[in-house]
Design goal:
This protein is an alpha/beta fold and about 375 residues long. The chain has helices spanning about 5-15, 25-40, 55-60, 90-100, 175-185, 200-210, 235-250, 275-290, 310-315, 320-335, 365-385; strands spanning about 20-25, 45-50, 70, 80-85, 110, 125, 130, 145, 155-160, 190, 220-225, 295-300, 345. The strands form three sheets. A six-stranded mixed β-sheet has the order 8-10-9-11-12-13, sandwiched between helices.
């Protein structure tokens, strides 16, 4: 079940004198309805775009005893209401409500959950990695580019997961802050291939195929939170799902033989520790970069689980699943002091100690947090004489 964050509860309690209306006939709607009921917060009804609905969505909402209305019936509402958007296409829903005269944060807001999913991303299929950054605002190879790689005096590339993804935030990512504050003045282009859900394995593949051809001056890997114990270190869950569907089609092999129903996934004889997988991939990326005369820095990123906790941190930590806590603590204990044995690794695990209110889940930061990370990385690179 998705986790209802303290900020969602606070937002709804702030508007408890208004009718609570949920926007979106989704499975999530049922989960949120039951959570709110436990908190003695009553949902009046659900609205959605009737043009998009199927019978299953209608039955789902009726199964919890709620009325499902068309979005435009909000025009008929005589009482003040607060609308909580549960649909993934938040921006589209937000624009629709604004066009109807409702004000963001006053009359409506969106639902957050502690899963690192911030804004709807229409990912593209990727034949090597499984999926990549959306077409909108990115180049054909799934890279977000700031500045011009053709005219810039040098290029810096960022790899990582959602904490560095340039498209997933409703605010500036740390990479965009980094470019605006430091690189744009220096005629340095920034290329970001970091994508939500990518582990170090996807970073490595992205580096080899899409980043090396740009001949960057420097590659920065900001990662570690997506590397967990696995038997299949070079296949993500989406790619696995994709190939299972393809194998079920029993397509021909390259020589015309029909009925292919198995695929190779690189299954290991024993489970690979997340820390081992991360460190191995970072070492490979460093070796590849060195071979091509490219500088490489890996940042062991900070996270809420292993930082020194402050008051607001504790509020968010309460909603983080125990499984995630255990994974991060295990990774931290395994990686230990060995990162100090590799000069290309910068241990940033304590970078945010003493700061409070920057995390909104176990690893993602608000814009202020991203600004601090961009400053920390700039200081790191200056110290290493890379800028």
């Amino acid at each position: 079940m998705k986790i209802l964050l303290e900020r969602d509860i606070r937002e709804l309690v702030k508007h408890k004198d208004k009718k609570i209306v949920l926007y979106g006939a989704e499975k999530l709607t049922v989960e949120v309805f039951h959570k709110l009921k436990c908190l003695d917060l009553e949902v009046s009804y659900v609205v959605d775009n009737f043009d998009d609905l199927d019978d299953g969505a209608v039955s789902l909402i009726h199964s919890i005893g709620l009325e499902l209305r068309d979005i435009y019936e909000l025009y008929l509402e005589k009482e003040d209401c607060f609308i909580l958007i549960l649909r993934n296409d938040y921006e589209k829903c937000s624009k629709k409500l604004e066009s109807m005269g409702f004000k963001n944060l006053i009359d409506f807001n969106r639902f957050f959950n502690a899963a690192g999913y911030i804004r709807n991303h229409r990912f593209r299929l990727d034949s090597l990695i499984g999926y990549g950054l959306p077409a909108e605002g990115c180049d054909k190879n799934g890279l977000k580019i700031f500045g011009s790689t053709d005219s810039a005096r040098r290029v810096i590339a960022i790899l990582g997961g959602s904490t560095s993804d340039p498209c997933v935030y409703e605010w500036k990512s740390w990479g965009e802050c980094f470019y605006n504050n430091y690189l744009s003045k220096d005629n340095t282009a920034l290329v970001i291939g970091a994508t939500a859900g990518y582990s170090s394995s996807e970073e490595l593949l992205k580096l080899i195929r899409d980043v090396l051809p740009l001949n960057p001056y420097l590659v920065i890997s900001y990662s570690s939170v997506n590397d967990n114990d696995t038997l299949i270190p070079y296949e993500n869950s989406y790619k696995r799902k994709l190939f299972k569907k393809i194998s079920a089609m029993r397509m021909e092999d390259p020589y015309g033989n029909s009925g292919v129903e198995e695929y190779i996934a690189g299954v290991q004889r024993k489970s690979v520790k997340g820390s081992e997988k991360w460190l191995t991939n970072q070492r490979i990326m460093n070796a590849v970069c060195r071979e091509f005369g490219i500088r490489f820095v890996c940042i062991l990123q900070p996270n809420l689980i292993t930082k020194q906790k402050e008051k607001k941190d504790e509020e968010i930590l309460f909603y983080v699943q125990n499984q995630i806590k255990n994974q991060r603590e295990k990774f931290s204990s395994e990686i230990g002091d060995c990162v100090g044995d590799f000069d290309f690794i910068e241990n940033g695990i304590r970078w945010l100690d003493g700061e409070d209110g920057l995390f909104y889940d176990y690893c993602h930061l608000n814009e202020k947090g991203n600004m601090i990370i961009s400053d920390k990385i700039y200081d790191c690179l200056k110290r290493r004489k890379l800028l």
